[in-house]
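ERR on first pass: missing label on line 2. Operator R.T. fixed the label and resubmitted. Corrected input:
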Amino acid sequence: MTEIAAARPRESPVAALFRHSRHVLTQNPVTAFAFGLFLLILLAAVFGPYIVPYDPLASDTTQALKPPNAQHWFGTDQLGRDVFSRVISATRLDFFIAVASVALVFLMGGLAGVAAGFFGGWTDRIVGRVADTIMAFPLFVLAMGIVAALGNTVQNIVLATAIVNFPLYARIARAEANVRRDAGFVEAARLSGNADWRILVGQILPNVLPILVVQMSLTMGYAILNAAGLSFIGLGVRPPTPEWGIMVAEGAAFMVSGQWWNAFFPGAALMVAVFCFNLLGDGLRDIVDPRRRT
Amino acid sequence: MTVLFDVEHVSKFFSASGPDQLARLRRRLSGGPQKLPKVHAVDDVSFVINKGETVGLVGESGCGKSTLVRMLARLVDVSDGSIKLGTRELALKPSRVFARDRDRARVQMVFQDAGDSINPRFTAFDAIADPLRRLRRKRGKELRQRVEAVASQCGLPLALLPRFPHQLSGGQRARVGIARAIAVEPDLLVLDEPTAALDVSVQVVILQLLQRLKRELAMSYLFVSHDLSVVRLLCDRVLVMYLGKIVESGPANSVFERPWHPYTQALVAAVPRFNDHVTERLRLKGEPRSPIDPDPKVCRFYGRCPIGARDCKMTQPVLRQIGSRRVACHFAEEFVVERVSSVHETQTLPQA
Amino acid sequence: MTTAPALRVEDLSVEFRTRSGIVRALENVSFSVGKGETIALVGESGSGKSVSAYAVMGILDPAGRVTNGRALMGDIDLLTASPRQLAEIRGRQIAMIFQNPRTALNPIRPVGRQIADVLIRHGKLPAREAALRAVDMLRAVGITDPGRRALAYPFEMSGGMCQRVMIAIALAARPSLLIADEPTTGLDVTTQAVIMDLIADLASELGMATIFITHDLALASQRATRIVVMHAGLVVENAPTQDLFAQPRHPYTAELIAATPDSATSLDELAAIPGSLPDLRRSDLPPCRYSERCPRKIGTCAQPLPQVAFGTEHVVACWNPIPAPVPLKRAIGAA
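pass 2 clean. output:
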């Protein structure tokens, strides 16, 4: 089946990417919505702390546990801190945790997996055994263990999340590299004078990227939930740092006595963020995969 | 005729999926034979390619032609033998590092499935530019000019250069594959069934393009194909392979007009010709012999060959020179004249 | 032919709905196969030859729709038959074999079982007897040691053997018509010869009609008594094999012959067919879809196509067919 599309004048790859992105977004309103939401979250992360009405750490016990009103849109918590300011400020931390975890696991797992799939032999065996070892543990328990052993700092939370997701990325990357290792274009690349490592990075990795990108966006949601979970049991971020998970943890106790806003708003923020990242994954795949370009 | 490539006694063995580790260990402990079974993909093949020549390589699937050409193109290592380009022995350098060799550009390849041989994330421009970047260190404007020149030479409209492989037709992809291969001006171009996936009308254009390029760039071709009619038109000489060995070679026209080896005869008889009702029922029964550890005393064709004499399973026939041809059959000379005129009756032979 | 044809296709039109428009894949395609006759549908990719077969068998892609025409087998029109009628006919009266034998077979069932399935479904045989008959079928298609092979899986067999198995499945219920869609593309040429011989032998033994779909004109010329040439969804020429090659009437047929390597003695003699396939999504497609590339185009070519007969057996859809006997190579070009 021949697809003869109209020829376009020469344009840079970046411009082509933008044009294609715009096309995808207009075709798919759900993706456009996810993108919009993502931008909103990003803006909140970057500018949030500067525009919030109250200092997220300032406590005023006279104002404790006030329900949502005109001065405090999301109410106040047990120490009189403005919940709204805390939720918005927490965006930065949670967003950072998500992005950093994903970047780290992509580098570690993606590269290790691609090398294992492409070279085979001992590289494959070693990566496989490392992944097996990690998978032998229940993943959340492993994350708990890592943070407990190394201390609850944000860096360790990021590290724990990355380690726990390593096998998944390694396996996906390995499978994709394995399939392509005998492809015609790899042989052609050798004929063209590309050394093995160059083939790995310049030819195989770009083909593996779209699949990993989808996974990365899902992992972002997971990373936030993971951090929230760790915070909930006290192994995450330390108070008084605003972070959605820890806010839910502290607010949960007040649900019973009717002060729902403490836990509700950070929980809602969590939900919206994870929802957004999941939707994003699909849309990103459409953009990144050239086969979907017409 | 100056010799460009001199291939001598080249072989390639793969280990057959032998018994597992436990069985091997057991065998070693009990003192039994330790040699693993090997697949003789290519077995003691020798030939030359001269400057400016087009040599055809025909044979069925499993005969080893793909492995052989990949050894020539240094994508795969030889198990044994020598491959000389001019005076230089290429087989010495492992294929793993040959990509960075100074002679890498002298042998290039065009693949059967052009779509598979181009990275799906590369544009046509990127694909053609890659060897120029790596092997000729071209950059920027110089690179672009060279890519455009080569594309035009191959009849590829410049407007198609920013496209991805899935946006191109089969014929256009084939042109990209050819452009990429000739961009570095190789001495030898190996073509692995380059038109197999193309329509007949596109095939004509591509074959004529290849013919023209050969003249313009003074290259030699090694043309692998299962389509004998195409080989007949394009090639000066032809090598016929069966189960890892060359069974016949010689000028293309005479090999196809009057094949001497029984396998070549069966091959030629099987090719559908225009308006020719099947009269010669020279059918090959059964399946080819196993290429795993074949008995060195038995002819590889024994069992499917209409001649099944005692000599055939006592001594492996050697590829010997008769005039301008070489044949590997004990009975080549004796039966030559008879074969041409008689109509064969096949015998149902037991599978050996 | 005095007896009724095994299959008669009349004015078959098929279109496909795609994201980029409606593709008019077939336009008023007509041909017929007599009982026990072997014909070939010949054309390049995009000619619609496979689509015709798929439409007749009722296995078109969901995006495809038959917009016109009939496919008559006896009294039944296959295109309007009920699913139950079709289920009875498929496998029992018409069978089809496909291009890639390995993908057409079920990879997780032994081949003997796959043959037995047909016998149980259509032959109404009990399982044990069906299994025995399956072994017989394997022997009939030339597979050695059939008893053992019946238990093998497709991945354990070579391409040629898989194709034989597919033939065995197709012929198990002794159909009166076999449609073979590029059955030997991808097989070695010696295997191809054996498979084609096998189909021909079985066809004559069963009195079965055969439709070969192929792009290989030489192969068609060798095996079929009648050739139907298709181009861009239209039948352009329909003639007995001898007549077609002795005197091709449609310019496309002549060009196709001249482009086949077998017809030339040197590479320069081969002629490329000028131009390329028209985009079948266009709404302004001319009635003759070859006219835009045709060297013999005249004014009348914008009119709906006629059916010009040369003798009783040879029909061409052309306003300016190649006239009285001229040598093959000079049949191309201005008259």
